Amino acid sequence: MKILIADNSYRSLWHFRGSLLRRLVDEGHEVTLVAPPDAGVMRPEETGCRYIPFPFSPRKLDPLENGGLFFRYLAVLRRVRPDVFIGYTIKPNIFGSLACRLLGIPTINVIPGRGRAYERDDWLQKLVSALYRLALKGSHRVLFLNPDDLDMFVSRGIVSGETGTYLPGEGIDLQHYGYEALPDAENGPFRFLFIGRMLKTKGAIEFVFAAQHFKRRRPEVVFQLLGECCDDDSAYIPCRELRKWHAEGIIEYLGVTEDVRPIMRDASCIVLPTFYPEGLPRVLLEGAAMGRPLIASDWPGCREIIKNEESGFLCKPRDIMDLVRQMERMLQLSQQERCRMGRKGREIVEQKFDEEMVLARYMEALAEIRGSGIA
Q1: CATH code for the part of the protein at 191-352
Q2: Of 9, 213, 355, 374, which one is least surrounded by beta carbons within 10 A?
Q3: The pTM is what?
Q4: pLDDT-based confidence at residue 249 (cuts at 50, 70, 90)
């Protein structure tokens, strides 16, 4: 089959969906990737996939740009003529799927998270819901990375109960992210680790504020941040600020890496105090797979991985002092108790989020389309 996959980032396609892309290529499918160019983790010529750069801003609300996306997807789809369209994130799912409906191309949509629009009760939420309802009406399958989002979309009539399906995250390679013994915090520094883009809405700034709080009383505790920063986007913590805090000894900014495992191996606890619900945060899956206790905001998605007080602690969203309290609780646990949390997290991932289970769902959806004769 000819499959066109659209996302809001080329890097995200390979970081989050690389196993799916490799499986599709290995099974003989002709795969075309359509996404904005960025620092991709794989060069197109190495992947067996065709790549078409498709620039747009994932967060920009410009009506002219967004309206033009429909016609741009229409042009790409006419050029590629795929048998199936797989869309990720809000703009590809809406504008790409609308173009597919016009051309009669079957679609599989993946909703990684409900998005910030659903934390508001205003015109934007109503507009997004209306566009989703229109775009997803003709989808063969709509996959949700957590059951809360699935229930919300079904209850609001955006998708039907027959079309919407729970997908247990993007899946994780349990061999690649193997279980690692927890560092002995009794004989070395305790390291809290934040991994992700340095977006303020990801809770990176709260993590830094927590570090400032602890440094006054527990200067031996280490706070590390790993991920992309940006001086030219107000949504990010500026790189210059991170370098300043690093120089002052408040945090350790580790920059960017293609392989998080060596840094996770040295971490005592993974922290993600995100402001908004996420589909299923990849960093929590990776941390749990490697046996690290977790702290994250009490949101759908995070709750799928963290069983509170069993594999980690959930903190109140956007509440710095509750984040500090949960970190303090983690520090007060014995090494044995933290190891028990790490083992529980690994057990949860093994039972629910093995990538083979996730890949099987995709293959089933593609087989349904092929078997129905609509592709």
Answers
A1: 3.40.50.2000
A2: 374
A3: 0.86
A4: very high
